[in-house]
Structures are given as C-alpha cells and as structure tokens.
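Please produce the structure of this protein holding flavin-adenine dinucleotide.
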Amino acid sequence: MTYDVAVIGAGIVGSAIARELAGSHLSVALVEARSDVGDGTSKANTALLHTGFDATPGTLESRLVARGYHLLGEYAEATGIPVERTGALLVAWTAEELAALPALRAKAEANGYDDCSDVDAEGVYALVPALGPGALGGLRVPGESIICTWTTNLALATDAKRRGADVLTGHRVGSVSSGTETTVMHTSGGDVEATWVVNAAGLGADHLDTWWGHRRFTVTPRRGELFVFDKLARDLVPLIVLPVPSSRGKGVLVSPTIYGNVMLGPTAQDLTDRADTGTSEAGFEFLWDKGRALLPRLLEEEVTASYAGLRAAIDRPDYLIDVDADRRYVLVGGIRSTGLTSGMAVAEHVVGLLTDAGLNCAPRPDLPPPPRMPNLGEAGLRPYQDGPRIAADPAYGTVVCFCERVTAGEIRDALASDLPPADLDGLRRRTRALNGRCQGFYCGASVAACLEQGELPSAVAGHG
Ligand SMILES: Cc1cc2nc3c(=O)[nH]c(=O)nc-3n(C[C@H](O)[C@H](O)[C@H](O)COP(=O)(O)OP(=O)(O)OC[C@H]3O[C@@H](n4cnc5c(N)ncnc54)[C@H](O)[C@@H]3O)c2cc1C
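Below is the modeled complex.
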C-alpha cells in the first residue's frame, strides 16, 4: 500500500508525530530501524518533565517545551505515565552564580513561567538538608517534575498503533527513491511507499536529510553519562537539584527517579561515533567529583547502574523543523536535550505545518481512548501491593524480579501487549524487571525464560 505519511524514527518525537497523524483520516506508518520502539536516545535521558524556564526566549524550542510540558502532563494523567511533581531547586555555589539568579528568573518569566521564587542559603538547606557545604542561595522552580521516559515512548507508539498506524520495527531506511507522487523508502524490512515522509530519525536525521537534496546541518552526538544510586539514597534528594546553567551547558544535576532511585549526571561530551553509548572512566571521575561537592552523603550509597545517552546536538541554537512541500518531506531535526518534554508539542507543530501544506489532518471523531499504561512509578500503586488485584489474579502476587518487585502478571501483560518487547532490554523498559540492585543476577534466568517462551514458564506461573 502507499501510506499517506511515513514517519521515520520511533523515538518519542516520531511516535508522538505518528500518533497525532493517526488521529486523522490519513494512513500512517511509523518506520523504525531497531527491533523496538523507544530504543534510541529516548530510552536514556535524565527523564525530567521540563517547564522550559531556562530555554532561550523566543525560540521554537522554548515555545514547544512550554507547550509540551502541559500536553505531556495531561497525557500522563490520561494514560498513567508516572509523573512526580517534585519541583526543582537551582543552587548557587559561587558569588557569580548567586548574581546570575535574578537574570534566570527574568528569563523564566520571559518564557511565560512565573512561578520561580528566590531561596536564601538557609532555605536551600531546609529543602535539601544533605546538600554539601557552601551553597549561597537558590531559585525554586516548582513545576519541574520527574517522569518515566520509557512509558512515555511506549504510550505514544501504542496509541499510534491503536489509532491505526502501522508500527514497522526492524525497518532501517537505507535509501529513498523520490517520484513525482510518492517516495519509496528502501528499508532492511522491505520497501515502504508513502506520499509524505517525516524524518524524525534523531541522531541520523542529518544523513537522511541529504537524500532529499538538503545539506543544512550536522548532528554531533553529545554524550551524557549518568549514575543511578540505590533506593536507600532516595530520602537524601526530595527534589531535583540543578546547577546554575553556564555557557558550557546545563551542568550536572541530582534528581530522584520515578523508580525510587537517585540519579547523578549528565556529563556533556561531544563525540564523533553516533553509537557510542558506553560509559567512560573520565565520565565516572568527573561525576564522582561533582557528586562529592554536591551531596557528599550520596557517595556513601551503592551505585546500582550507570548509563549514557546521546543528545542529537546540531550546529544551530534551535530546533530545525521544516517542510519541503515540493518533495512532500518534513525534517524534524536538532531535538537535543528537551525532546521528551516537547515531543507532543513538536507533533502538534508538525501537523500544523502539514495542514498548511495542504494535507487534510483534521481529527476523526471515532478515536479509541488513550491506552492505560502499566504503572512503573514508585509513587503509585504497584501490582505487588494491590490486594484486590492479586486476589482476582494471583500472577500479580508472584514476584519474579525481587529488587524491583516485578510480578509474573506484569511480565505476562508486557509479552501480550500491543507492542511486545523484542529483547530483555525491551522487557526491562516495560516492567522494570532486571533494573534493580542485582541487575538481573538473581532473576535474569527466569525473566529470560519468559521472553524466550513468549509466556511465563509453568514454574513461575504456577507459584502464587
Ligand atoms: C543525557 C540526556 C539527558 C536528557 N534529558 C532530558 C530531560 O530530562 N528531559 C527532556 O525533555 N529531554 C531530555 N533529553 C532529550 C531527549 O531524550 C531527546 O530529545 C529525545 O529522546 C529525542 O527523541 P527522538 O525521537 O528525536 O530521538 P530518538 O529517541 O533517538 O529516536 C530516533 C529513532 O530514529 C531511528 N532511526 C534513525 N535512523 C533511522 C533510519 N535510517 N531508519 C529507521 N529508523 C531510524 C532510531 O533507531 C531511533 O529509534 C536528554 C537527552 C540525553 C541524551
């Protein structure tokens, strides 16, 4: 078939765009190189739902982050994506940083965010008693929140599928042939033909862009490494602790995670290899030094995991979203360090541009309700805690992953879901299994057996 629109890239941005378009009468394909959705940058970030208080006023990014904050917040309520409204505290450690706070507050207001408030040194320690010595003051940003990036990506892609989009994983686009009416994408999973193509390929967007004859930007993979500390550290960090941003970037933060851990990072290192998501000794040392100054007691706790994500930084100070109506092609590039928050607003923006270009994207009335996602958040009720649910279905009382308290029922549900996991990492993103202290040392074999058999092994399923 010839799709009306094909969206390349099933990260948060591409999935949000496919979902939005699939809400109209258009036929939509979401074309993804990897074997799962949400397996690129969207799975490895700091998972903050940003207010956009510190964006550059007047930019497209500033507008779409502010809009995305509200859209995703509402969507999270509708779908059950876990969010905790912890708020953030920006801490000034030097006289220079203290002097920069009023300008930051003014910037927030220029971005339409009026809720910041000044905090003196005493107030800073009242909010985060475990903070290292030397804080001079701070700025509260009550709207900054923590969110589950995995569930966000999965909800958007699931929604797109339920609205009728074809989710074509394992389809790496290697080249395109553009005709007068349609474009054929030659992919590792076969040809896909569409009238319009949206390029939401993240780190690969600049390469793909050249296939439509453009040479307008270069992606630099900017690696961010992070540490995840054990859940025992959680009480040390009641809210997101941010540094004062500088010309060198947003800096290293400490934040609670939605799974009940504490996160320290990210670094910011420009690389050439777009696949290098490994962590490094230099990154380790850098973060350790930062952690020691920020929150010395944190370093007494165990590190559960470390990971790295690659921001798709570009050689321009803003998002690069553009429609080439002649070639029926849309570029969605440079969604660097805010795309988790802005993704739904980017989708709304892209649909607006396509409508202006003559495509009928009017919403259809018969949309299915948004999917209700399994709760991975520590603040909400988890199945192992839910007595009536366990009584109705004992699989929710059978814990398979003990560190994260993931039950057989949740694994079974993930395997039977609209977009089942392709591998153990995909199962981890859907359930939290293997994500805890032991990193799969104890439960790895049982969880792997579930995945291999496509169902729960009888030893697990029958154990109530
Ligand atoms: C360290 C770090 C911290 C961050 N923190 C935050 C945060 O706290 N809050 C926030 O809002 N944002 C944050 N971000 C940014 C956010 O994660 C990204 O902006 C967002 O995930 C980008 O989504 P995407 O869909 O554009 O890209 P991706 O998730 O990378 O998706 C692109 C997809 O395109 C696919 N693809 C590429 N080439 C092809 C091809 N040829 N054929 C088919 N498919 C292809 C890829 O496989 C990939 O799945 C952070 C990023 C990093 C790295």
